[in-house]
Amino acid sequence: MKKYFVEFIGTFFLVFTIGTVVIAPGIGLFAPLAIGAVLTAMIYAGGHISGAHYNPAVTLAVWFRGKINSGDVFPYIITQIIAAAVAALAVLFIKGNPESPMEISALPAIVAEILFTFALCLVILEVATSETTRGNSYYGIAIGFTVMAGAYAVGSVSGGVFNPAVAVGITIMGISAPSSIWIYLFANIIGGFLAAAIYKLIHSDD
Length: 206
Prior knowledge:
mainly alpha, Glycerol uptake facilitator protein
């Protein structure tokens, strides 16, 4: 159970940080920095216990890569979604609802989310599951910086979600409209599977 507990904690603080910095007036351009920083910290804290996925798309990519037991996939995803929902409720209690949900255009948002979910999952597979990078000390920074870069690059297009659990959390918080959640679920899962497929193509001998 300890790995599920770690997945809950890491996902909770990721979604909690996203909610508090997005809803907080005046944070502005520093929001992606805070999000990337907390993800980096939580990855270093939990990576040796659960693998520090904190993201259903990552769990699916790692499963397709063959580095997580099939029996853990569903419990990981359920734990991540529950943690996101609890974090969203905590944010609403502390900060209240945003004035209005963000507006996104479906097709540009889908493309942006697929691309950076792909980038995130590929980085994770390369720095955290590859035999050639085993034991490195930079994996957390690489992953956190990818999320930070993605948030800066396409945050204005899609919200910079790259994570179905985060999509659930920001929908509950009212940051994103419920009608937009399918965009994230579809794009994030596609991005994760594409990353795993490309990883296996590059590392066909692994």
